[in-house]
């Protein structure tokens, strides 16, 4: 039992789970825009997420705090290195414009983690902007990259889907911020710190309603029903979110929402 828990914790701590969520959103993008499955694109995002998230999570721990590196962190470092090599491999299978945009997304991730400007903290610690940077990166990686790599002309539907994807990720992060309220630095000015937990939940509910309604413009009835199930599920996660919840509430269950959404689509075709 202890071994299974260690394996499960490694699965979460190494960012494989969040990478699977990003992979699921890429597959959802393929589905909604009728894009043929592109292995290079999907795996580029999957392994890129592992590299990006592990860089964000462990850079400060190792580089700044100088804490001893345990066996799990060493294995995560090896996994991240292998993922980086695979990211490089799949990068050269993408269209040139996709490569350029992916470099921009990587630059934003680096800005989020490293203090580029003199006498300034990294973007992760800029008051009130963390949630927007993360949401934009997710939209860029899981929707914009697959879309432009498929060389599809920009339409109103693309921008609607971008807004929907941003709202979805924004709401997912709200749940994280509610659970992290007791531990977050007050200077971060997260949404719950700024408006309180109750209003944050109301905000999450309020955003999910137009998220679903916007789908009426471009989704089939079949897709709208699936989206409604996903929205109700996420609303329940918001409703029951509080600072006393286990870390698994967000790190596994909430981050699994995109996977749940993708599986509903995949098995209902």
How is this structure best described in words?
By secondary structure, this protein is an all-alpha fold. Helix 2 (16-32) runs antiparallel to helix 3 (39-64), helix 3 (39-64) packs antiparallel against helix 4 (71-91) and helix 9 packs antiparallel against helix 10. The mean pLDDT is 88. Helix content is 73%, strand content 0%. It contains twelve helices and no strands. This is Prenyltransferase. The chain crosses the membrane at residues 12-35, 41-61, 73-91, 97-117, 129-148, 154-179, 200-218, 224-241, 248-267. Keywords: Membrane, Transmembrane, Transmembrane helix.
Describe the structure concisely for a colleague.
By secondary structure, this protein is mostly helical.
Please count the helical segments: 12
Oligomer kind: single chain
Q: From the alpha-carbon coordinates, what is the Rg to the nearest angstrom? A: 18 Å
Number of strands: 0
Pattern of helices and strands: HHHHHHHHHHHH
Helix content: over 70%
- For the termini, the CA-CA separation is 37 Å
Report low-confidence residues grouped into runs of 5 or more. Answer: none
Q: Categorize the overall geometry.
A: globular
Structural class by SSE content? mainly alpha
Mean pLDDT score, rounded? Answer: 88
Q: Outline the biggest β-sheet.
A: none
Strand content: under 5%
Short key terms for the protein model shown above:
single chain, 269 residues, membrane, Prenyltransferase, transmembrane helix, transmembrane
